[in-house]
Amino acid sequence: MTGPIPWTRCAGQPPSSDARWISYLTADRRLALVSDLTRPASFVVEAPTDEFLGRPTASADGASPRDPRPPGTLSFPYGPVTFGLVEAGRIDLETPGEKVVSAVPRTGYKHRQIDRSVIGRTPRDALPWIERRVGPFSIAHGATFLAAAESAAGAPVLERELWLRALGAELQRIHVHLGLIGRSLEAAAQPVGTAQIAALAEEIRRSMGRWGGHRWLFGLLDPGYPWRRLDRPDLRRLAGDVAGIRRRFDRLWELARGTRIYIDRLQATAVLPRACALALGATGPVARASGIGWDDRSADPVPPYDQLEVPPRVESEGDALARILVRVAEIRQSAELIEQIVDRWPGELREVDPRPGVAPGRGWARSESPAGDLVYDVTLTEGRIGALGVRTASAANWPAFARALEGSVFTDFHFAWESFGLSFAETDG
Amino acid sequence: MTGWIVQAVRRGRLTTRFPRAPPGEEELPPTARLPVLAPLPPTEAQRRAARCPTEAIEGTRVDEGRCLRCARCLPGEAVADGPWDHLVPGPGSPSAPGGDPEAERSTSIFAAPFLRSIHVFPIDVGSCQACNLEVLALANPYYDASRLGIFFTPTPRHADLLLVMGVPTAAMEEPVRRTLEAMPSPKAIVAVGACAVSGGLFRSLPGRGSVGSAGVPVVYLPGCPPSPIQILAAIRRAVGVPRAAGERP
């Protein structure tokens, strides 16, 4: 998909007429700068167009090519008030009773004007807003934003800061994946497994709280944060916690893998073929589960990932099981990465140059968030944020989700939802 | 099947001793506590107040409802050792001076206290997901809220208590109103987290602080996000059970 990617918002005034929007082509693994500017950050709860969802568009007389619907088709709005989705958002499902004919995600219920709130602040002051775009990914967002700001300012950054960002990001990746796996077990009516995985998620939150002073690591990236514990014994203890969680997770996953009810519900559910994943611009674990071996940590690495081995974890089936398997493999991979990061923690205070900017005062950065490729585009004017663009992984994956759900049955919804791991908060901003 | 049960039994008891014993340090990281500010010379105090992202600082007084416990106001080696179990009186207002905290803590906001069982329905009105997941954590084996008679219900029609998370956005106004209408009386709200209490970082949104305008009693629980122990304590207080010390054996 080379065109502009909708559902991204830009705030403030565009810096110049030739402003470019950053996107990328998954197909040939190349970063493309696509020119697009950006809808105003006004608030709408919007339904995406057929074109956006990669469907054939309506003909001139207004008839949708998917008509006629089967007789008795009803439209079922799921959300925004339901705890099945964990947060406020809505999916309109059309179904004649069992098969889902179409699924249309509606986002915007949680638009908190974050992009607008940070305009005019220094990057360090803007951090609390950026982190709270989506709590479980706070480090991915904070780190990518800071890297983009450093790229805009051309300011070198301490190597240790980059290692700290990677450490926090890997901790949060484990936490997010554990949550999704636990809730998919819940949907398959496996209460013991659900509770045991939820206990692991709680343990990693407690480890983050003990090490970083905050259960969600809010504030950790600020150099003045008082509860940064970067001494070797503290880091060792954290790595020990993670190793224990990984051991317990391995035992639980052995049991889950042997539970027919669970695996049967995931297998061949909400299939996203590789061609669709490419055409719709899917990213992250969703794309990797459909056989696309792209991971920012190895495909476009920044320190410290350029010094670490991060082969992408890939599956080929493209179903809910494949997506869960990718997440399982990534929990193990992140646990190993944390061990390596702690082992090789940089002692001396060396400075690293940021990514070159795209224009004077304008820089960008990307990183692999737990949901996939995350891009920030920051323009600084006199050290303050003049314009901000975000392209989140959740926003990129909605079309793939809608497409994968079509043709599933109603009760597959939760397996599709938890395996995709999309966030309304991240999309809405 | 048996494998799961053996595994669960092997892990043993994980559940917190709270409320029979005070919560441990594990359950309350430093950011769960309110910072305590020492008096500073005026210029320093001003600089400190300017660092606060929610403008919650006035001199040495911290507006508890707005404070995110983000520690930007603290010097490098300081610790926040303020109280962890504070509820705040209302949206954005500073803690009540000279109020009687004990009285507030021991009475239920319901006319007739629910002593044995309460059904709660969580509603997200514009959060970052952190509060949502901390509320969900009440069901994990570490907190196990159902042992205290607190149950999640999938529909507001069966709910006594509404847990509101996040800053009310324009699009969520109507859904919240209809959810409250669907709840049977008596009902009450717990505003979970700084966003729901005062708007927190999002005080420029018109919906901030509107949680209290529904004519339903509200318990305001600050924090960003409050930890599950604090949510548990707030629900218990809304319900009117005696404080931890007076807990049934």
Question: Overview of this structure, please?
Answer:
The complex is a heterodimer of chains A (429) and B (249). Chain A is an alpha+beta fold and 429 residues long. Chain A has 14 helices and 11 strands. Chain A has a 4-stranded antiparallel sheet. A 3-stranded antiparallel sheet of chain A has the order 4-5-6. A two-stranded antiparallel sheet of chain A has the order 2-3. The radius of gyration of chain A is 21 Å and the shape is globular. The relative contact order of chain A is 0.18. The model of chain A is unreliable at 1-46 (pLDDT under 50). Chain B is α/β, with parallel strands linked by helices and 249 residues long. Chain B has a domain at 101-246: Rossmann fold, CATH 3.40.50.12280. Helix content of chain B is 24%, strand content 12%. Chain B contains 7 helices and 7 strands. In chain B, strand 5, helix 5 and strand 6 form a beta-alpha-beta unit. The two termini of chain B are 35 Å apart. Residues 92-106 and 243-249 of chain B have low confidence and may be disordered. Chains A and B meet through helix 2, helix 5 and helix 6 of A and helix 1, strand 3, helix 4 and helix 5 of B.
Protein traits:
heterodimer; A: 429 residues; alpha+beta; Cytochrome-c3 Hydrogenase, chain B; 3-stranded antiparallel β-sheet; 42% helix; B: 249 residues; alpha/beta; Rossmann fold; 5-stranded parallel β-sheet; two-stranded antiparallel ribbon; 7 helices; globular
Shape of chain B: globular
Q: Biggest β-sheet of chain B, characterized?
A: 5 strands, parallel
Average pLDDT of chain A, to the nearest integer? 83
CATH topology of one domain in chain A: Cytochrome-c3 Hydrogenase, chain B
Strand content of chain B: 5-15%
Helix proportion of chain B: 10-25%
Low-confidence stretches of chain A: 1-46
* Low-pLDDT residue intervals, each spanning 5 or more residues of chain B: 92-106, 243-249
The total count of helices of chain A amounts to: 14
Order of helices and strands of chain A: EEEEEEHHHEHHHHHHHHEEEEHHH
